[in-house]
Design goal:
Blueprint lengths: L7 E6 L15 H10 L4 E7 L24 H11 L6 E4 L4 H6 L14 E2 L8 E2 L7 H15 L5 E5 L9 H9 L7 H26 L4 E4 L7 H4 L6 E4 L10 H9 L6 E6 L14 H13 L3 E7 L8 H17 L7 E2 L3 E4 L15 H11 L4 E4 L10 E4 L7 H12 L3 E5 L17 E6 L5 E4 L12 E4 L4 E5 L3 E4 L1 E5 L16 E4 L5 E6 L2 E6 L3 H8 L2 H14 L5 E3 L6 E7 L8 E7 L4 E2 L5 E2 L6 E9 L7 E4 L3 E2 L2 E4 L2 E9 L2 E6 L1
Parallel strand pairs: 1-2, 1-10, 2-3, 3-6, 6-7, 8-9, 9-10, 12-13, 12-14, 14-15, 15-24
Antiparallel strand pairs: 4-5, 11-26, 16-19, 17-18, 17-21, 20-23, 21-22, 23-24, 25-30, 26-27, 27-35, 28-29, 30-34, 31-32, 31-35, 33-34
Length: about 675
Amino acid sequence: MPVIVASRQIHLDFHTGPDVPDVGRDFDARAFARTMKRANVNSVTVFAKCHHGLLYYPTKRAEHHPGLKPALDLLGDQIEALHVEGIRAPIYLSVQCDEYAANTHPEWVARKADSGQVKWGDGVFKPGWQILDMSTAYQDYLADQTAEVLRRFKPVDGIFFDMCWDQPSTTRPFIDGMRSAGLDPEDAAQRQRHARTVAHAYMRRFSQMVKAASRNASVYFNGRKLHDLAEEVRFQEQIEIEALPTGGWGYLFFPKNVRFARTFAKPYLGMTARFHKSWADFGGLKPQAALEYETAQMLAHGARCSIGDQLHPRGTLDRGAYQLIGGVYDRVAAREPWCLDATSVAEIGLFQVPTGPEVGIARTSGTDEGAVRMLAQLKLQFDVVVASSALERYRLIILPDCIRIDAALGKRLAAYVRAGGCVLATGSSGLAVDGAGAWDALGVGLVGLSPFQHTYLRFGPGIDREVPPSDHILYDKGWQVRPRPGTRAFGRVIEPYFDRRWDHFCSHQQTPGATVTRWPIATLRTLGKGCIGYIPFAVFSAFNSHGNYPYRLLVRNLLDHLLPDPLVRIVAPTGTEVTVMRQKRGPDHAARTVVHLLHYSPERRTEKLDIVEDVVPLHDLDLSLALAKKPRRCYLAPEVKDLHFAWNNGRVHLTVPEVVGHALVVFE
């Protein structure tokens, strides 16, 4: 049997300190499970062990929670009651956060280079989790706990291991492990590398333990960088994207990372929470519109849904929270027939920006975020990819701002373009900077980095659609490039009189433009059946930092040459999110394409908190979609309301009468 990953989950935190005296006092298993059932929940992650390092089932182990009556099997009763209602119950185990172990075995606590303890919090006398070193005997201690859980609750529905990042340390076992591997413990980068080795080793160990005990169990290690999925997906049975928008992640984290997660052949889900702010915000309840938006985003990308909550220490659920969750999950359940097991219809592969100290000076800030913002505002359909991805499935590859192109990738991309694909490179991507070789197919030669901090973009014919006839400020330095023969140049860079300095400046901000240079603001080269576009500055990082809309117009207008017939065309506000998904066979056995339209507007209600409280409807949106053949039927879901449409030159044209938050337009 394949591993089952449920579609409407609750992640039920239960980090309950040892000073709480009445753990589970008011727990009613039947009421607990029925509350979940009424809220349309089909999976609840329940706790065996929390960050305090305490256990919530009968055990002879010393770390049994002192406030839980020895005879009360809180975990077992939760699992049994949920199963009676047909609800799955994966089990939670905390990994690198364990206060009990840290206090009883301080030699297991991870250490900094100065020998101070690693702690989630500022200072010894501030509340915060002590972080354990998995190189120490703590790993065997955790393995014993895990083995007991796997025996006692066999077969488990799944195990959710939490707090599993790469943790460098300077404990004796960690240093000994480095020396055995031929690494230098004094080198911070090598300590980080060894931390990755340690993490992969224990992930492999614990995954094998779970699968040996319960073959069909789900396994997930939370806290890993989603950036590294290509390397680590082998340890996981599913991919979970923890992203509480109001809890520090923001509203861009999920749509950025899901576009990478969905390229792997594993079930994937988004995890938000019902809290106004972040985890354990007791008494904090977010507006329904916000939770509705967050789950709608998940559905729009083919993800399953998970909503975080925290059980009160006495074992009672918050009534208001489950009224909120139930209302949202009712909406999710109604839309699932058009969402589950859908795959993305993406025509663009956006390269993931590399991370780590080896990236060098060409690294830009916020490139991923800026690219996702811009492409989403342009309503383009894209996945996030890496060099090992199936690039040939996309019509266009984007190399944003700082992608190094080695000989192998350059050869592969050149063959891709000759066969009819297109490439857009920006910034230093493909240039001979920072010790990297140049990609000759780019069609430009590098002159150097601009000597001016601020320059201006003068758009010209072929790239000036809807651009105001001004010289537009470029707030960051760009590259000066010389187009090679056969490469078309667009626009010109305008340089200022001089750079602004303390003893040499003009007016309030940057110095005005003065000189028209020969440096282009964009280029285009035809190669075989395809073509390559280039923008000689970090346009996506700049868009993320400055939000200057001419940067978006520049990319859009160059894409007019690279992708002249995009999958979707729609007249809608820039904040409207559009995704295209495909079900090969829906529940009614009909193959279908589904266009998701989302229009929720997060507002900055405090200095750092964005929230959605009001849903403002949109009306009469003109939508055009490219399809291989004329559809038999177009309608809105879940209402199943037919829409009149026209078919012309391989495109469907229709008007969406209304979008109230989230609309699904179905083409069968």
